[in-house]
Sequence to fold (85 residues):
Amino acid sequence: MSAVMVLALGCLTAQGAQAAQAGQPRAAGPCDANYTGGCVPIARDVDCSSGSGNGPAYVTGPVQVIGTDVYGLDRDNDGIGCEQS
Fold:
């Protein structure tokens, strides 16, 4: 039997780089490249911190969907996820 190692990769968005330069905290770990405007963590499931989801990971929005909305954060399909009502 051989061992298998799984490695998760992420990317630093322009907003993340600006936040780092400004000294603002950034979420630990990689961010999902399908979203911008905030770090949506790569996890089994991500929910909006202002909603009733059960995680295990959460994001504070709004975040813009620039790819596939893999976590269903944009319920009204307007391109913005985790909008405050």
Remarks:
- The mean pLDDT is 78.
- The chain is about 10% helix and 15% strand.
- Residues 34-85 form one domain.
- The two ends are 52 Å apart (CA to CA).
